[in-house]
Design goal:
mainly alpha; about 0% strand; globular
C-alpha cells in the first residue's frame, strides 16, 4: 500500500520534472512557469529555501536527528524525483536541440529571438504603471546587454572556471522573474557546448557547471531575494533591458547563414506565439486557483 501511494504521489512529480526540463533547456522559456501551472511552484520554492550547507555540518557531527529534520524540511524525496525528471528531459532534449541548431540554425535562433522578445515585453509591461524610472533603467539595461554582446562571449572558451561561473549565474537566474537559465548559458557561449556535454555525459564539464549552480543557489540567492523584495521594479527593468540588448546575439546568429527573410519572420512569430500561449495558460491557472 505504501509503495502504491508513493508512486501515486511521485510519478506525477516526475512527469512535471520532465516538462520543466524540456522548458528549462529552451532559452526564453522558464521551467518555473511549468511548475506554477502544474501546481508545484510553492512546494518547490519552499524546498529550495530550506536547502542549507548546514546539513553537511550535521552529518559531520553525526547529529542524525538534526540531519533527518533538515532532510524533511528540504522535502528531499520530492526534490530528488523532480530533479530526476528534469535530468531525464535534459538527456533527451539536448540531442533534439543540438539537431535543430545544426540542421535549422536560422529557424532555431529566430525562434529563440521571438521567445526572448515576447518574454521581455511581458516582463516589462506592468512596470511603467508602478515605477516612473522604468524606462530609464530599461535603456540602461539595453546598453549593458549590447555591451555584453560586444565583449564577444565566444572568447571565453569552455574551461572549468568558465563553466562554473556560467552555472553560478544561470541557476541563480532561475529565481528571477521571467529570466531563463538556458538563455544565460547561451549568452555566456556555453549553451551548445553544454548540450553536447549532456549528450555524451561529459561528467567533469557537467559537474563544474552544476557545482557553480549549487554554490549560487546556496549563497547568492539570498541577496537576489533581498533585491527583489526592496527593488523589484528597478531590477526587473534592468534585467528586461539586458535581455533585449543581448538578444542581438541571437539575431546575428540567425542572420549568419544564407536564408530567406520569410523563414526568419515565421520562426520569430512562432517564438512569440509560444510565450503568448504559456502566458495564457498561466493566467488561466492563476484565475482558477483564485476562484477555488
Amino acid at each position: 500500500m505504501q509503495i502504491r501511494s508513493f508512486f501515486a504521489e511521485y510519478i506525477p512529480v516526475f512527469v512535471k520534472g520532465i516538462l520543466m526540463g524540456i522548458c528549462d533547456i529552451i532559452p526564453g522559456v522558464s521551467g518555473g512557469t511549468v511548475a506554477f501551472i502544474s501546481g508545484i511552484y510553492g512546494r518547490l520554492i519552499s524546498a529550495v529555501a530550506h536547502v542549507s550547507p548546514l546539513i553537511i555540518y550535521d552529518l559531520l557531527k553525526w547529529d542524525l536527528p538534526a540531519f533527518r529534520a533538515r532532510l524533511l524540511q528540504m522535502d528531499v524525496v520530492f526534490l530528488f524525483v523532480l530533479l530526476a525528471g528534469i535530468g531525464s528531459a535534459f538527456l533527451i532534449a539536448s540531442r533534439i536541440m543540438l539537431w535543430f541548431l545544426e540542421e535549422y540554425p536560422v529557424l532555431t535562433n529566430g525562434f529563440f529571438f521571438g521567445l526572448i522578445l515576447a518574454s521581455s515585453v511581458l516582463l516589462f509591461a506592468p512596470l511603467p504603471h508602478r515605477y516612473k524610472g522604468g524606462y530609464i533603467f530599461l535603456i540602461l539595461g539595453i546598453i549593458l546587454g549590447l555591451f555584453i554582446v560586444m565583449l564577444n562571449p565566444a572568447a571565453l572558451g569552455h574551461s572549468y572556471p568558465v563553466l562554473f561561473i556560467t552555472g553560478f549565474i544561470a541557476l541563480c537566474a532561475m529565481i528571477l522573474p521571467g529570466i531563463s537559465g538556458a538563455y544565460i548559458t547561451l549568452l555566456m557561449n556555453q549553451y551548445e557546448y553544454m548540450l553536447h556535454a549532456i549528450k555524451i555525459l561529459n561528467l567533469p564539464d557537467i559537474s563544474a557547471y552544476l557545482a557553480g549552480g549549487v554554490l549560487g543557489i546556496l549563497t547568492f540567492t539570498r541577496l537576489l531575494k533581498y533585491l527583489l523584495k526592496y527593488y523589484h521594479d528597478l531590477i526587473v527593468a534592468v534585467l528586461t533591458g539586458i535581455m533585449l540588448g543581448s538578444s542581438k546575439l541571437l539575431l546575428d546568429r540567425a542572420l549568419e547563414p544564407a536564408a530567406s527573410g520569410s523563414e526568419l519572420i515565421i520562426s520569430v512569430i512562432a517564438g512569440i506565439l509560444v510565450v503568448a500561449l504559456f502566458q495564457y495558460v498561466q493566467n488561466f491557472a492563476k484565475k482558477k486557483s483564485m476562484d477555488n
